[in-house]
Structure formats: C-alpha cells, structure tokens
Amino acid sequence: MSLKNTKTWSRVLVPVLLLCCVSYYYSHFFLQRSGAQHDGTPRERRERDRHQLRERRKTAKPEQNSERAFSKALCDSWNISQKWERLNFNVSRNAQLFLKLEDFFWRRYLSTLALPYGVKGSELFLMKALAAMASYDMPETIKHLPCKTCMVVGNGFAIKNTSLGSAINKYDIVIRLNDAPVRGYEADVGNKTTMRLFYPESASYNPSIHNDPDTLMVLVPFKQQDVRWLKEILYNEKRIRKGFWKPPPEIWLGKTSHIRILDPYFLQQTASRLLRLPLNTPPKTNQIPAHPTTGILAIYVALNYCDVIHIAGFGYPESKDLKHPIHYYGYDTMKSMKNSYHNLSHEVKALKRLEDSGAVVYLHPHS
Ligand SMILES: *[C@@H]1O[C@H](CO)[C@@H](O)[C@H](O)[C@H]1NC(C)=O
Ligand SMILES: *[C@@H]1O[C@H](CO)[C@@H](O)[C@H](O)[C@H]1NC(C)=O
Ligand SMILES: *[C@@H]1O[C@H](CO)[C@@H](O)[C@H](O)[C@H]1NC(C)=O
Ligand SMILES: *[C@@H]1O[C@H](CO)[C@@H](O)[C@H](O)[C@H]1NC(C)=O
Ligand SMILES: *[C@@H]1O[C@H](CO)[C@@H](O)[C@H](O)[C@H]1NC(C)=O
Asked: Is the distance from the beta carbon of residue 208 to the nearest atom of ligand 4 less than 6 Å?
C-alpha cells in the first residue's frame, strides 16, 4: 500500500474506531443501568422512594431522629429567601453536582473551556471513567430531604481545640477536603463525612481509613491528567506518572460505587462569579493562573445544594510568622502556601462577603 493510501485509510479508520468506542461505552453503560434497575415508571419510582423514606424514618435510630430535629430547627430559624436575595448569585439549590455519562450523549456536553473550568478536550477520558462508575447522584436519603443543612469542614488550624466534633456530626451533609484526617481528631472535627472533595495529588490511598463507609469521594478534575488517573485506577491500566506536581497514589482503594466527578461548572462559577478571577490568562505570559482552592469551591458547591450552610476550619493564621501551622493536622506552615496556585487574600475577602451577607455562618470565632 502506498503512503497516500495509508493516509486515506487512517482518515476513515480513525472516526470509525472512535464511533465503535463510543457505542461500546454507551452499551456498557446501558446494560449496567437496565441490569441494575428494572423499576417501572418515574412515578412508581417516586412512590417507592417515598415509601422507603417513610420506612427508614420508622426504623431510624434515636440519634438519627435527634439529627432530624436539629436539622429542622436550623431550617426553621434560617430565613432562606432573604439570604438568597442578598447574594444575587443566580444559583439553583438542589443542583446536579456530578457529571453523568448521559450528559455526553443526549445533551451533548458543550464546553468551550478546558479543565479545570470545562470538559473540552477531556471528553473521552471522562466518558470512559464515567462508564465504569455506578451512580452519578447523591444518596437517596439526602436527595429527598425537604431542607438540607450542610457543614463544610475546612482544614484550617482554627478548628483545633474547638471541641466542635459532636456539633459537626449533626448536620445532614458534612463536606471535607482532600486528605484531611478524621481519626484521632474526632473531638474537634467530628467523624461524619458525607462527601470529600479531592484531586489526585491530595488523595489518600485508602479513603476508608478516615471516612465512613458511605462517604462519596468526589474528584475535582483540575487537569486532563486527573481524569486519566481516575480512568487508570478504574480500569486497572498502566499508570502514567507524568503531569502531576506531586505523585498521586498508584493504588487507590476507594469504592467504585462511591466515586463521583464534580461538574467543572462549579469551579468555573466559583472562579468567575464568587472570586471574579479571569478564566484565561493572556497567552504567552508566564503567570500561573490562580485557581480557587478546594475549600472555597466546597462552599460554593454547598451554596448550590444546601439550604443552611455552616462552616468551620476556614481562615488562615493572623500571625505573620511563616512557621505558623496552617492545618489542624500535620506540619504544613504558611510558608508552603506562598507559591501555590491560589490567591488566598482574594478568597478571604470573598468568604467575608458571604459571611456578611449571612449566607454562611462560622461555628467558631475567627479572625
Ligand atoms: C424572610 O425574608 C423575606 C425577604 O426579606 C421576608 O419577606 C420575610 O418576611 C422573612 N420571613 C421571616 C419569617 O422573617
Ligand atoms: C441565571 O440562571 C438562568 C437559568 O439557569 C439563566 O438562564 C440566566 O442566564 C442566568 N442569569 C445570569 C445573570 O447568569
Ligand atoms: C490545645 O489543647 C492542648 C491541651 O489542652 C494544648 O496543649 C494546646 O496548646 C492547645 N492548642 C491550641 C492551638 O490552643
Ligand atoms: C463516630 O463516633 C461515634 C461515637 O464515638 C460512633 O458511635 C460512630 O460509629 C462513629 N461514626 C463513624 C462513621 O465512624
Ligand atoms: C490577588 O488578589 C488581589 C485582589 O484581591 C489582587 O490585588 C492581587 O494582585 C492578586 N494576586 C495575584 C498573585 O494574582
């Protein structure tokens, strides 16, 4: 075959192969779905969900009932509409937080931005990762709560010695960040974790050490390599180590059924609406774009999903001492944050605005 022929052939073959891949992933997904739920019309499903919820309430342990009472009291005393009007963020509570495989087929996920703010260029990795995952949703027990109380636990030193643990455990949803430990720190940070936001470099290789068994592990993809890392874990493929600023775990023991991928929309909105950062740095400058931290992202996610948002462990030490510890665990100091990708003073101001508007409330005194 001549070179020209080979070229023509590959031009035809590549799209055909691509199409095969796509239909393979889709049928895989479809089979999984239809195997898992042969459960009638949406209406029947809703009825069943409601029934299950009633049954669960009946069999709930006393501590769960006291959690509901706590949640209800908080919701009743919190004037939701007022806070939202003041914020003027155009967020929809109860948003779909996680990427779904369907998005890539039916609604053709259109994105003009690449990661971390959009999916452009990472579609195939995402589809493959999503095809291996079992669910793209919050747990049913949480989804159907009429009013959701949320606690975002930051990793800041400020939470040390606060004894907030048992208070934190009472919220419907407790969000934690990265590899922040729980075991050994329960008195201050509690031990309930509904979801944990992380990226490969901040993943701990065995999430079950510090989380309860039901914790959703939510990947925040900052770059294409992050999605590729997840795909390699899910399919047990050869790990490619290039492109990370710190080696991510090569073995990761998270449960497939509990993995989710955060929709990059939320990082994009955190950057553009909450922090008002430019989404693109001008080409040909060496300036590293400032991305939001997972902490401020988690708060923005909570604004989109929860009715009541309380936070703890946010803020940086007032002290100018670069040796001052910044986390409630470990030995990282302010010095380690100096050359990060984040603009911390900017985030502190944004958080202050949220606090002043009453949209978020701190559980402890802070600077
Ligand atoms: C809550 O705030 C809204 C808007 O400011 C106001 O109209 C309403 O009366 C308030 N409700 C309560 C119970 O304070
Ligand atoms: C607010 O959200 C609605 C619905 O998602 C959208 O159509 C509208 O353009 C948004 N407005 C602004 C100012 O972003
Ligand atoms: C926390 O409490 C312990 C024991 O009481 C004490 O040694 C430590 O200095 C306290 N740390 C802070 C930051 O207050
Ligand atoms: C949290 O701590 C309480 C009290 O020590 C214990 O009963 C509960 O099982 C713990 N939950 C998790 C998820 O570890
Ligand atoms: C960080 O944000 C502040 C405004 O809050 C701005 O003045 C400063 O230039 C930013 N720093 C960097 C490194 O982007």
From this structure: no
Q: Whole domain around residue 124: which residue ranges?
A: 64-362
Q: How far is the CA of 191 from the centre of ligand 4 (A)?
A: 6
Q: Is 319 in the pocket of ligand 3 (CB under 6 A)?
A: no
Q: Tell me whether residue 279 is in a domain.
A: yes
Question: Taking the model in full, what pTM does it have?
Answer: 0.81
79 CB under 6 A from ligand 1? yes
pLDDT digits (tens, 9 = 90+) for 302-353: 998 998 999 999 988 777 788 889 999 999 888 877 667 788 888 999 999 9
d(CA 309, CA 162): 19
* 32 part of a folded domain: no
CA-161 nearest atom, ligand 3:
1
Q: Is the CB of 32 under 6 A from ligand 4?
A: no
* 160 in contact with ligand 3, CB cutoff 6 A: yes
Residue 16, in any domain of the structure? no
What are the tokens at 46? 């809703």
Rounded to the nearest angstrom, the distance between the alpha carbon of 88 and the centre of ligand 1 is 16
Q: How far is CA 238 from CA 185, 220, 221, 250, 296, in A?
A: 36, 22, 20, 9, 33
- For ligand 5, atom 12, the nearest C-alpha belongs to 343
Number of domains the chain contains: 1
Say if CB 190 and CB 164 are below 8 A apart: yes
CA angle 146, 151, 155 (to 5 degrees): 160
**90 C-alpha to center of ligand 2: Å?**
6
Which residue has the least CA distance to atom 14 on ligand 3?
161
- Cβ-contact 351, 78 below 8 angstroms: no
Answer yes or no: are the C-beta atoms of 157 and 79 closer than 8 Å.
no
Sorted by sequence, the CB contacts under 8 Å of residue 129 that are 6+ apart come out as: 227, 230, 231, 234, 261
The closest ligand to the CA of 319 turns out to be 3
pLDDT tens column, 31-73: 444 433 344 555 565 565 556 555 655 555 667 788 888 988 8
CATH number, residue 310:
3.90.1480.20
How many angstroms separate the alpha carbon of residue 329 from the centre of ligand 3? 13
Asked if 261 and 135 touch (Cβ cutoff 8 Å), the reply is no
Instruction: For residue 315, tell me if it sits in a domain.
Output: yes
The tokens for 34 are 């239809």
